[in-house]
Amino acid sequence: MQLIARNITHRYGGRLVLDDISFSIGEGEIVCVVGPSGCGKSTLLRILGGLEKADEGEALVAGEAPEGSLNPLTYIFQDFALLPWRSVRGNVSLVLEDHGIRGARANAIIDDVLARTNLSDFRDALPRQLSGGMKQRVAIARALAVKPAIMLMDEPLSALDSQTRELLMDDLVSLWSREPFSACYVTHNLNEAVRLGTRIVVLSRRPGRIREIVEIDMPIDERAERLVELEKLQRHVWEIMREEAREADREIANV
Ligand SMILES: Nc1ncnc2c1ncn2[C@@H]1O[C@H](COP(=O)(O)OP(=O)(O)OP(=O)(O)O)[C@@H](O)[C@H]1O
Question: Which part of the chain is the ABC transporter domain (predicted)?
Fold first, then answer.
C-alpha cells in the first residue's frame, strides 16, 4: 500500500499552516519529515492518518493493505501512551482485543511482536518497571501487532536520552532489515532522519512548504558503516534548514 500526500494545504483560524505539500510513501519506505518547530509536521501526520481533514488537497492510499492488517495507518507517539496497570503483554493484547482477537491467535501475534522487539523476557513487567527505551519498544510492538501498512511516527525517540535513542535506532534498523516496514517519521533530529530515511522531506518555517526532498540512495542496514557519507548528507539538510530554524528559535525565545 502507498500513502500519498497530494497538494495538502491547511489553515488554523485563517492562518496558513501547511502549503501545497505533496510526496508519497511507497512500500518499505521510511519517509522522514523534518522542519523547524511549529512548521506543521504533527498536523501533516494527523492529516495523513485521517485524524484531521486538509482544507485543500488530500491524503490518499493506493493499493491493498497487507493481508490481516487490522489498522493500515497506525500511530506511534513520543510519550508511549501505555496503560500503566497493564503488563507489556497486556498492553499489546489490548489492540487485539479491540478487534475481537483473543486466545491462541492473539498469543501467536503477541509472541511474534515481542520477539521482534526483544521484549520476550519482559512480557509480564509493568510499564513503571521499564526504562523509557523499553516503553517505546512496547509501543512499537503494539503498533506491529495490528500489522500496519504504514506507521505514522511522531518524534518517537525524542523523549529518550541520546544513548537510548541510538539503541532504539539500531532496533528500528534491524526490524526494518528483517522485514521492511513503511513509515512517515516526523523528527527534529537530523541524525535520525539520515540514518532511517529513504527520503527526507524538508519543510520550511510557517507556513510549512516543501523546501527540498532529499533522496538517500543507501541501504538502511549499511548506514551505520558509512557515517562519513551520512554526516555529509546531514550537513546538507542542516544547511537547508539553518536560517529558518534560527528564526523559529528566536521567535520562541521572544514569547
Ligand atoms: N488544533 C489546532 N488549532 C489551532 N492551531 C493549531 C492546532 N494544532 C496546531 N496548531 C498550530 O499550527 C502550527 C503547526 O503546529 P504543529 O504541531 O503541526 O507543528 P510541528 O512542526 O509539529 O511543531 P513542533 O516541531 O514544535 O512539534 C503551530 O503554530 C501550532 O500552534
Answer: 3-230
